[in-house]
């Protein structure tokens, strides 16, 4: 009888150990599944646009492109360029396949003007020679910075940072007809300033289509997703953003413990609006990384999914050039079921990386629940 009881006890203990081991294996498997990452694949052609030493206006840097795709499937880039004078202007390139940008402007397609990105020279100290170590706004001392573009109807809207020194960083908006752009007739509408004088603003995005009948402008991702709506995008309006100045706290236990700002204009997918954004990991504060969110289609202030790991990090030599540790994705398109992201590498080059859209959405749906 005593031996039978010992045998039963041993059997129970062994069974419990087996169950415990199985539970641990399941938990470890789930943890591994959650930890599975998804990285964009860089093009072997990178950098796809780089500075021209013979060109005075883009001899030092070509980076941070806006992107859109027209009805013919052609990809258009409008990128920030810096020449020997340290002023930021905008250049243009286009491509049939979205990778080989053989058509490229030989002159600036958009230049800053006084009040819309051109600083008062009398207020700028020692403007004599370009020096990226001296001028900290992407290596420049003023101009039209970090363009974002969207195609709405037959108009291309361009939103950019009008930088006139650290006391005047405002968001400007202009437009051009798609017909004029295709024919390279640069008849831009006079810009309007849509952010107030007393605020420093960057990384604003215009949604590429109306939401609930209104134009939507995203102007912050912290302390929450900040979106304002306007009835008429072509008339003068002003948005005051409550986004705090500078990097803000993100998710402490993730890669995005410090949030920097939004990336490319949102793209509509079957899951909702795909929003790319930039952040910094406290463990690697020298690296500017890229992540993704899925926002609700009808209420884009609501985050449905969010990447638990970065989808692009500055690991290549061309992402650690003029300013080490930078990938700045200001343009993206969906072409042939591929998410094609266009970004500035090291504040000097235009680069691209891509992934299969369906695979990406499946990954973030499983691994990015909030």
Describe this protein's structure.
The protein has a single domain, classed as Tachylectin-2, Chain A (5 Propeller). The chain has 3 helices and 21 strands. The strands form 4 sheets. Strands 2, 3, 4, 5, 6, 7, 8 and 9 form an 8-stranded mixed β-sheet that branches. Strands 13, 14, 15, 16, 17 and 18 form a 6-stranded antiparallel β-sheet that branches. A hairpin with a 2-residue loop joins strand 15 and strand 16.
Mean pLDDT level: 88
Q: Can you write the helix and strand succession as a string?
A: HEEEEEEEEHEEEEEEEEEEEEEH
- Main beta-sheet annotation: 8 strands, mixed
Strand content of the residues, in percent?
35-45%
Report the principal-axis shape.
Answer: globular
Radius of gyration: 24 Å
Low-confidence stretches: 21-35
The CATH class designation is Mainly Beta
Question: Helix share of residues?
Answer: 10-25%
The CATH homologous superfamily corresponds to: Glycosyl hydrolase domain, family 43
Number of helices: 3
- End-to-end Cα distance, whole Å, is 56 Å
Which key features would you list for this structure?
36% strand; 6-stranded antiparallel sheet; 8-stranded mixed sheet; 3 helices; mainly beta; Tachylectin-2, Chain A; globular; 21 strands; single chain; 370 residues
Question: Secondary structure elements and their pairing?
Answer:
Blueprint: H1 2-34, E1 41-42, E2 61-69, E3 75-82, E4 87-95, E5 103-104, E6 142-152, E7 155-163, E8 169-177, H2 178-182, E9 192-193, E10 205-206, E11 215-220, E12 226-230, E13 248-249, E14 258-262, E15 267-269, E16 272-281, E17 284-295, E18 303-306, E19 327-335, E20 338-345, E21 349-356, H3 357-367
Parallel strand pairs: 4-6
Antiparallel strand pairs: 1-21, 2-3, 3-4, 4-5, 6-7, 7-8, 8-9, 10-11, 11-12, 13-14, 14-16, 15-16, 16-17, 17-18, 19-20, 20-21
